[in-house]
Amino acid sequence: MTMRKVKKIFIWVVTFVMAFSLILWLFLFNLEHVAFNLDFYKNEYLKNDVPSVTKMEIGELLKVTEKMHEYLKGKADDMDVLANIGGDLVRVFNDKELAHMKDVKNLFKLGFWLKDISIAVFLAFFALLVWQTSFVKTLSLLQKGVGFSLLALLILGVLIVLDFENWFTLFHLAFFNNDLWLLDVEKDRLIQMFPLNFFEDAVSLIFKNTLIEILAITGGVFAISKLLKEPS
To answer: Where are its TM segments located (predicted)?
Structure first.
């Protein structure tokens, strides 16, 4: 294999990793935005009739949600919270639910770390390609790499939408090494607050926002490439 061919393979590997890192960062950025968007929760609670199911007023539900957000961000040591439920001040979550949320918090910590790493990798590999080729060539490579990633994301999104419940179960089996996530809708408020429809809407919104941003980036990169195109 000649050095020229080796360099070509190297360039394409770097391009793929660069594009994947950008897509991952966008996905995690949108996941974080949706996960901590109080308006999204309010709309979902009303849509899924959560106040009626949990016997909690929407204001109480949002207070509990804010406490959960603080916990997942590492700003609170626990999310064992009291709330007015049916006129009584009671503990919202039981020990099993709190134990599961500890696992969820660890998953969020991993997500925060991956988000920081992915943008760092993207910037480093973008700079590497500029050094190895040129700025305009790097933009062209980025456009192609993101295009392939967009196609893969679209296929994945369609597969998930077609059988969301199965994918939701597979996700939990892959990322949790216990059965704490198997909650009882009759007595566990965590699943009453966050039924399957909540997660389906959240994932759909995350995918939609990510796809829109990818299309915007692709269009922007294409326009800049045209403006800066090097004479042949």
So the answer is: 9-28, 117-136, 148-175, 202-224
Could you tell me which of 211, 221, 165 has the C-alpha nearest to residue 27?
211
CB 85 within 8 A of CB 54: yes
Question: Which of 160, 171, 147, 202 shows the shortest CA–CA distance to 20?
Answer: 147
Report pLDDT digits (tens) over 122-143. Answer: 999 999 999 988 898 889 889 8
Q: What is the CA radius of gyration of the chain?
A: 22
pTM of the model: 0.92
CA–CA gap between residue 48 and residue 63 (Å, rounded) = 18
* Residues comprising the chain, all counted: 232
* Residue of 37, 35, 38 whose CA lies nearest to 61: 38
DSSP string, 135-165: HHHHHHHHHHHHHHHHHHHHHHHHHHHHTHH
Query: 90 forms bridges with which residues in the sheet?
Result: 83
H or E element: which one contains 231?
A: none
Residue 188, H or E segment:
none
